[in-house]
Amino acid sequence: MNGKDVHKIVVACDAGMGSSVMLASQLRKELKKFSVEVEHTPVNTIPDDADVVVCHQGLAARAAVGAGGKPIVKFQVFLGDPAVKKLVNAIKNGGEIGA
Fold first, then answer.
1. Which residue in the list 6, 10, 11, 13 is annotated as catalytic?
2. What whole-number distance in Å separates Cα of residue 57 and Cα of residue 13?
3. Nearest to residue 12, comparing CAs of 49, 33, 39?
4. Is residue 13 flagged as an active site residue?
5. pLDDT tens-place string over residues 23-76
């Protein structure tokens, strides 16, 4: 998938509403001028209209169940992770986002 085709990112979390909410907020700010919606949801209720799912690597298997084959960006640290930076750059510059 090309980053220019991303219209909705879902940041999926487990139970807490802390660090992943901060990540979603950061993504909203970074992608605001690119008209990309960023939503924060529990990993078990990923909406069908998500283009890309962002989640901690420990939740990737659970996210894959609800992602419907959409790309999943797995990160290790909530803020400043290289995988998330790569996603943002792909959206800004039209790069590829792997599944």
1. 13
2. 11
3. 39
4. yes
5. 999 999 999 999 999 999 999 999 999 999 999 999 999 999 999 999 999 999
Report helix, strand or coil for 45: helix
Q: Which CATH architecture has domain 3-93?
A: 3-Layer(aba) Sandwich (3.40)
d(CA 35, CA 16): 27
Query: What is the pTM for the complete model shown?
Result: 0.93
Question: What does the alpha-carbon distance between residue 71 and residue 99 come to, in Å, rounded to a whole number?
Answer: 4
Domain boundaries, the chain: 3-93
Q: Is the Cβ–Cβ distance between 74 and 23 less than 8 Å?
A: no
Q: What's at 14, amino acid-wise?
A: D
